[in-house]
Amino acid sequence: MIAGWWRVDEQLTNWIGRQEEVEDLITEWPAAALQATLGFTDPPLREGDELPPLWHWLYFLPTVLRSDLGTEGHARLGGFLPPVPLPRRMFAGGRTEFVAPLRIGQTAGRRGTVVSIEEKQGRSGALVFVTVRYEVTTEAGLALREEQDLVYREPASGSEVSPPGTDPIPPGAWIRTIIPDEVMLFRFSALTFNGHRIHYDYPYVTQVEGYPHLIVHGPLTALLLADLANRNGPDRVRSFSFRGRSPLFADNSFTLVGGMEDQNQARLSVWSHDRRLAMTAEADF
């Protein structure tokens, strides 16, 4: 049982405080490729242009050898991230503060720090949450700070199909509908160098993980919500937080909903085609 393991394997807590540092050049091509992937017809970003919120996820990517990947496609644990003995890893949520613009053409460094490891009990069994803090800096100083919450879960024990929602999708001042297909998911996986098989391997996600179809990336959904806020808000996004609530699947539309709560803050959400709440978010301007 995870509880027993947690008490005896005290060395896992030694990962708290562990750090890694990565440097990257913020180039034009990944941003242009993401615009094409999402069907955005904006003018391409050029040197000196500011990256939209959360697009830094296209950079600072770990180049893990094929031999160092687990069966699910993630990098094996025990390097920067702790060796949590639960096989299913997902991006549960995060919080980002945009301190200064990150621009095309800049060289930037990212320092990651494991800040907490916490065991919880969920409806599906044992859960372990690992929170990692990142700081991205340029020659001008701090550009952004971010915390990512990763959740580790027990193996699937049956179907992971969620029941449809019972309430109508709420109205909002800002609305966009997305139909994610296999090509969109494949391209986003490639752009973020994400080998997790739940996003492109249909036999794996249905037969091993128990889901009905390929899963839409949580970061992709969050990035689309941040874009909705960025296009419609009164000013540039200063901070953005999100939490995943339930999965979205390929070939099934989902709806982004948002609007201003007050002068400086927007609330946003994502709803599946069958009216399940999939993600909630807040943006401050």
List keywords for this structure.
alpha+beta, disordered N terminus, Thiol Ester Dehydrase, Chain A, 33% strand, 10 strands, ten-stranded antiparallel sheet
Provide a brief overview of the structure.
This protein has 285 residues and is an alpha+beta fold.
Task: Characterise the protein shown here.
The protein has 285 residues and is an alpha+beta fold. It has a single domain (2-284), classed as Roll (Thiol Ester Dehydrase, Chain A). It is 17% helix and 33% strand. It has 5 helices and 10 strands; from the N terminus they run αβαβββββαααββββ. The chain has helices spanning 2-8, 28-38, 182-191, 202-207, 218-232, and strands at 19-25, 88-98, 107-122, 125-138, 141-153, 174-178, 239-244, 254-260, 265-272, 277-284. The chain has a 10-stranded antiparallel β-sheet with strand order 1-3-4-5-2-7-10-9-8-6. Strand 9 (265-272) and strand 10 form a beta hairpin. Helix 2 (28-38) runs antiparallel to helix 3. The chain starts with a helix and ends with a strand. Residues 1-8 have low confidence and may be disordered.
Q: Give the N-to-C terminal Cα separation.
A: 45 Å
Mean pLDDT: 92
Radius of gyration: 19 Å
How many beta-strand segments? 10
Tally the structural domains: 1
CATH class category: Alpha Beta
Report the β-strand fraction as a percent range: 25-35%
What sort of overall outline do the alpha carbons produce when their principal axes are compared? globular
- What structural class results from the helix and strand content? alpha+beta
Low-confidence stretches: 1-8
Strand order of the largest sheet: 1-3-4-5-2-7-10-9-8-6
CATH topology: Thiol Ester Dehydrase, Chain A
Order of helices and strands: HEHEEEEEHHHEEEE
Determine the number of helices (DSSP H or I, runs of at least 4 residues). 5
Sheet with most strands: 10 strands, antiparallel
Q: Determine the fraction of residues in helical runs and give it as a percent range.
A: 10-25%
Fourth CATH level, the homologous superfamily: Hotdog Thioesterase
CATH architecture: Roll
